[in-house]
Each structure stands twice: as structure tokens, then as C-alpha cells.
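Researcher: I've been going back and forth with a colleague about how Secreted protein might be arranged in three dimensions. Neither of us has a model we trust, so I'd like an independent prediction. The organism is Saccharopolyspora gregorii, in case that matters for your notes. Sequence below.
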Amino acid sequence: MRVPNGFYTDGQGRVRPINGKKGRGGFVAAAGATALAVTAVTGGGGATGGVSSVAGEQVTARVGSAKQAARDGRSDKAWQRMRLRVREQRSPDHRLDCIVHSFGQVQEFFVGHRCRSLTRTVIPLADEQGGTAVVSVAWVRTGSTRDARALNRLDRRDGTGDIRALGSSVLAARGVSFTGEHYESTAKGTLFVRAEAAPMSGNLPPALLDGMAEVAVLLPRP
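Model: Here is an independent structure prediction for Secreted protein. You can compare it with whatever you and your colleague have in mind.
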């Protein structure tokens, strides 16, 4: 509908009169009408909210596709679908003693429950804008399915300790901190897997860091 002279359309699509006289006052009213129109287009919060929503949906779609590749054992394809590049990666570390490489209640768990093997790796990743992050992954082969599930429940609780990341002291010296914010774990049979992402540089969105952990926990054990 064409808006007649002397009126404007507000943010709710209603036609309202422009108050005040023409001239300077008229320009102020027109500017206000323009601002209202912009508000209507952007949803009341400028363009940022809309862009963030679209970006979040794109990350979610990438994560879903990457998870399938990870389940299929295609690690490289999984990160490609996330639009992430794997930088130089350390060789995985294979151990038989989980007690030495854990702390807190998680360590106490291993004192009373068999740990058949521990494999740890760290995956350094970079996004398309040059932002970097690192994902720590640990695979624990427990003595039973019940133990794997119990360890998963314990590790998911805040403040219960952890399995130390491979090269954790070196990463800490570079300012990398694993806070448990971007974390995922799973138990399948006698295998417990935990993955945690931590930012290194750039402005990586939290959804992307969460997705890194969600994909990494599905990767095959190296």
C-alpha cells in the first residue's frame, strides 16, 4: 500500500501521521520513520541478530554432516565438512596407566576400576578466517560396559577431575585453557571417549567450538 504524503509506516506496519511542521522538524520525523523501517527489517536489533542466527544455523548444519562422516570413520572428511583445516597434529599417545594421567575423582575412579588402555591426542584446527582452536580427545578402554557408563556419568559432572590433555603443560604455557565449556563425552560398550575444545586465537563462535567437541568424540580411535 502506498503511504500518502504526511504519513509514515511504523515498525508494526501501521500508517501514522508525521508530527510537527515541515522544514527542520519534517526532516527529523522522516529520519525517525526511516529508523523505524530499518528496525522492522532487522527485527528490532539491527542486522547483527539476524546474521548471528543464520551463522548459527550454518554451523549446526555443518556439525550434523560432519558427525556422519566421523561415525563412518572419515576423520579428514568430517573436518572438511566443518570447514576446518587440521594443522600439524601430534602423534597419538598410547598408555596403560590411566591413574598417572588423570586427577580428582576421575583419578580415584581408576584406582578402583580397571583401565585396560588410554589413548590421547590433540587436534589443532583452523577456520576459514584464520581463527585457531585445539581439541583434546581421550579414549579409555575400561574393564566393563558398566564401568564405561559410570565413568561417563562421573566425567560429565562439574568439579570431578579429568583426564589430562596430551601436552597439557605446553598448551597451558601458550595460554590454552580447558574449562569444560565446550565438551562432549560418550560411552559405547567398554569404551569411554571424551573430547574438549579450547580456543587459541581469533574469534571462534561458541557453537563452532561445541561442534568441534561433538564431532571429535565420534572419531575412530587412532
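Researcher: What would you highlight for our discussion?
Model: I'd start with this: The beta strands are 7-9, 15-17, 85-86, 93-95, 102-103, 115-126, 132-142, 162-163, 183-188, 191-201. After that, consider the following. The two ends are 64 Å apart (CA to CA).
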